[in-house]
Amino acid sequence: MFSGLIDLPWWGYVLVALALTHVTIVSVTVYLHRHQAHRALELHPIPSHFFRFWLWLTTGMVTKEWTAIHRKHHAKCETEDDPHSPQVKGIRKVLWEGAELYRAEARNQETLERYGHGTPDDWLERNVYRHSLLGISIMLVIDVLLFGAIGITIWAVQMVWIPFWAAGVVNGLGHYWGYRNYDCADASTNLVPWGILIGGEELHNNHHSFATSAKLSAKWYEFDIGWMYIRLMELAGLAKVRRVIPTPRFTEAKSVVDLETLQAVITHRYDVMTRYVRSLRGTCAEEIERLAAAGQNVNRKALRRLILSSDASGRLCEKERAQLEAVLRNSQALATIKSMREELASIWSRSTASSEQLLHQLQDWIARAEQSGIAQLQEFSARLRRYAL
To answer: How confident is the model at residue 193 (pLDDT cuts 50, 70, 90)?
Structure first.
């Protein structure tokens, strides 16, 4: 049996497979995701062409297709039009059939035309890279020539790596299980605080909160290996970072908030909303316990999320909606906390309002928060006055 040009111990083949799949992961997260889909960084033609070539060999993915599907995912997140939301399609479907969902959406020409703009359209893309089967077949031949029969196994690992980890785990578990740094409008989560195995894509809640950031880590204890590679390429003159997650800045509290405060609140809206949730969590829990002690049937965990989070209340069944309405009728504090959260979020979601109108809305919100009689809400409103650019 042909043993290949390179003879290695068993663990050597394992390391080779891990190294090859890691290059593929880096190609996806740096080139397809951060560079092509979100324009978070610029890439020199050398790494850009290498990543395109490598992805053609190891995944057969077409840049325009991947970019369009991912952009649509952000635009339609957690709705029926989302190509791969576990909140809509179910976690089992997305986790185990994520690649099939990707291929089905890739056949949707409307998606490609609407969301695939700005992707490569040169001779190589039109005449070479669009032939997906050719690329992965060449990779199979290379693996067999180098490693012999075991090369078939290495090639198989390469072929399933992205469909499982990216299409399944990130798109599935990344919208179903994990922790959240930011209270963004979708159900995205961070799987673990160290983004190594999937190139930083594990930090999915951070990404959905700041989609155009080239850096996916946000807290001091989080590590994004994709960002490390970007910084190394930047030092070598092969990349240029355009945007990263903004760091909130605070000054002395203003007696009257102005347009600068408004802009700072909008810029740091996810930090604002996250701090709102943390500030009111204690009051919310106390009110829920009071209702439970009074004999009202409440699901404590679910109720806290419905009142404080922005990603849950839009998908209630009739029974859940009735229970929530009953709770809010019996607790003025909970009703205030929920309505004030929704009004605060509307400040940055009203795209047609003028700056003056939004400023008036923010000033009115702060005034009513200070008059609410809820201590934590009053403290939070004082913090809003301190946000600065």
So the answer is: very high
Q: Is the pLDDT of residue 163 over 70?
A: yes
Q: Which of 180, 208, 241 is the last residue of a domain?
A: 241
Q: What is the 3-state secondary structure of the chain?
A: CCCCCCCCCHHHHHHHHHHHHHHHHHHHHHHHHHHHHCCCEEECHHHHHHHHHHHHHHCCCCHHHHHHHHHHHHHCCCCCCCCCCHHHHCHHHHHHHHHHHHHHHHCCHHHHHHHCCCCCCCHHHHHHHCCHHHHHHHHHHHHHHHHCCHHHHHHHHHHHHHHHHHHHHHHHHHHCCCECCCCCCCCCCECCCEECCCCCCCEHHHHHHCCCCCCCCCCCCCEEHHHHHHHHHHHCCCEEECCCCCCCEECCCCCCCCHHHHHHHHHCHHHHHHHHHHHHHHHHHHHHHHHHHCCCCCCHHHHHHHHHCCCCHHHCCHHHHHHHHHHHHHCHHHHHHHHHHHHHHHHHHCCCCCHHHHHHHHHHHHHHHHCCCCHHHHHHHHHHCCEEC
- Domain assignment of residue 249, yes or no: no
Say if 45 falls within a structural domain. Answer: yes
Q: Is residue 251 one of the residues assigned to a domain?
A: no
Range of the domain at 313: 259-388
Q: What is the pLDDT of residues 78-121, one digit of tens each?
A: 999 999 999 899 999 999 999 999 999 999 999 999 999 999 99
Note whether 37 and 116 are same-domain residues. yes
pTM: 0.86
